[in-house]
């Protein structure tokens, strides 16, 4: 009798723990969903007012298209049970409910859907103010249906069939799986689309200031908030040791963001003799992106070091890409997500408590982190180039000069986001 009662109690506890975990993942997914608002405000603030409506449309469509395509196909490609092409991606029989998703773990689908939308929207900012809306929608659909799910299947199913998981690769919440993939796609897109009119004159980069730093700052703060769900929710459970682990992840995330902002502030203050607003905001994002891979693998001091390094590197990277490579990225997405996504992933090989160089590691983890992250970057770059090159040769990537000068809001959407007297000041 006592044994039966204990078994009943254990089952009840197990059920409650499972429900708490599902609730935590759902709440975290809602926070990540809200990050789409942060990306929208950030991009609007860092660009000119005449293109604000276009940016709003792109970010909403990233979420809308990503939600449908990931439900229909992407989730099955990423998490299916059957391997295709020797493990290049996955699929599942229809009776398992992965294609046109109808399985029982709906909360996992929602959580992974908002991650997929994040990867897509990274590209938006890098090619803002000069890209055809129709072309962007097609690329967003391809990225959320194929590019992101295929590479995501290499690690996140966390089974022996995922080759990077088997290799010992660590990317807790997606510095490479999400951010480096989005950053690499953004790099290729920005190169193929080309710079905005007036960005480079006689070979020299010209500043094209964003029209609303208040929007930019609010966007960053929303992203900072949402990142607690992005990283914390990736613990994928709640209760007991998982509660402690999720709390540690959240603190590591906050520490990296804070020191990233401080590092960028002090570095630019010393470099430019001014406390640069946009660089400070990007420093916070750089810290967030950098710690995303290792937030569950390092301690608070490791998070501090990673955030500090990324906060400085993002400034140097934005300058190098803008002035030396002459690639026009209005919001710094390539540096924040691509460069710091790669750097944060690699730095796990230094700061991880298990296998990091500073904690007795042999260097194996550092090697795995490096080639694993490069695999994501190369895949995203190659796949994006193929898709965008085809689009460029067929329907085109870029709007006309007249449309760019007048603003995409007017020509692509038939309406201006601001009253005319405000918009005319930002042309």
From TrEMBL:
Record GO cellular component, one term: plasma membrane
Q: Which residues form the signal peptide?
A: none
The UniProt record lists the Ammonium transporter AmtB-like domain at 23-418
Domain of life of the organism in this record?
Answer: Bacteria
In terms of SUPFAM superfamilies, this protein maps to:
Ammonium transporter
Biological process annotations from GO = ammonium homeostasis
Q: Note the topology in the membrane.
A: Multi-pass membrane protein
Locations listed in the record: Cell membrane; Membrane
Q: Which UniProt keywords apply?
A: Ammonia transport, Membrane, Transmembrane, Transmembrane helix, Transport
PANTHER family membership: AMMONIUM TRANSPORTER, AMMONIUM TRANSPORTER SLL0108-RELATED
Q: Which family does it belong to?
A: Belongs to the ammonia transporter channel (TC 1.A.11.2) family.
| Source species of the chain | Flagellimonas taeanensis
* One family name in Pfam for this protein: Ammonium_transp
Q: Which GO terms describe its molecular function?
A: ammonium channel activity
- What protein does this entry describe? Ammonium transporter
Query: Which positions, given as ranges, span the membrane?
Result: 21-42, 63-89, 109-128, 135-156, 176-193, 213-230, 250-270, 277-294, 300-321, 333-353, 373-391
């Amino acid at each position: 009798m006592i044994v039966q009662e204990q078994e009943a109690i254990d089952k009840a506890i197990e059920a409650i723990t499972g429900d708490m975990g599902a609730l935590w993942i759902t709440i975290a997914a809602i926070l990540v969903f809200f990050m789409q608002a942060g990306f929208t405000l950030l991009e609007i603030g860092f660009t000119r007012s005449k293109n604000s409506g276009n940016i709003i449309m792109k970010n909403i469509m990233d979420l809308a298209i990503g939600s449908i395509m990931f439900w229909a196909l992407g989730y099955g490609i990423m998490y299916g049970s059957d391997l295709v092409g020797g493990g290049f991606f996955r699929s599942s029989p229809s009776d398992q409910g992965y294609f046109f998703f109808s399985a029982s773990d709906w909360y996992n689908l929602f959580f992974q859907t908002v991650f997929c939308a994040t990867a897509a929207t990274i590209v938006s900012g890098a090619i803002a103010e000069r890209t055809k809306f129709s072309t962007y929608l097609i690329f967003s659909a391809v990225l959320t249906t194929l590019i992101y799910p295929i590479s995501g299947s290499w690690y996140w199913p966390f089974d022996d069939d995922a080759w990077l998981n088997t290799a010992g690769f660590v990317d807790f919440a997606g510095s490479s799986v999400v951010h480096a993939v989005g950053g690499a796609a953004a790099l290729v897109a920005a190169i193929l689309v080309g710079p905005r009119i007036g960005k480079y004159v006689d070979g020299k980069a010209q500043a094209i200031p964003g029209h609303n730093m208040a929007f930019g700052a609010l966007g960053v703060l929303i992203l900072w908030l949402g990142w607690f769900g992005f990283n914390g929710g990736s613990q994928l459970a709640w209760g007991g040791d998982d509660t402690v682990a999720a709390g540690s992840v959240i603190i590591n995330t906050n520490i990296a963001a804070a020191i990233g902002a401080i590092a960028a502030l002090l570095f630019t203050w010393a470099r430019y003799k001014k406390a640069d607003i946009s660089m400070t905001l990007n420093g916070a994002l750089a810290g967030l992106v950098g710690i995303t891979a290792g937030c569950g693998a390092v301690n608070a001091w490791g998070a501090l070091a990673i955030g500090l390094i990324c906060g400085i590197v993002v400034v140097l990277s934005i300058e190098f890409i803008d002035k030396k490579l002459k690639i026009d990225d209005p919001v710094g997405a390539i540096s924040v997500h691509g460069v710091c996504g790669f750097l944060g992933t690699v730095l796990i090989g230094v700061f991880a408590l298990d296998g990091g160089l500073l904690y007795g590691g042999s260097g194996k983890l550092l090697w795995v982190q490096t080639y694993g992250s490069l695999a994501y970057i190369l895949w995203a770059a190659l796949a994006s180039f193929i898709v965008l090159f085809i689009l460029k040769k067929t329907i085109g990537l870029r709007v006309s000069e007249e449309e760019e000068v007048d603003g995409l809001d007017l020509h692509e959407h038939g309406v201006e986001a601001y009253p005319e007297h405000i918009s005319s000041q930002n042309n």
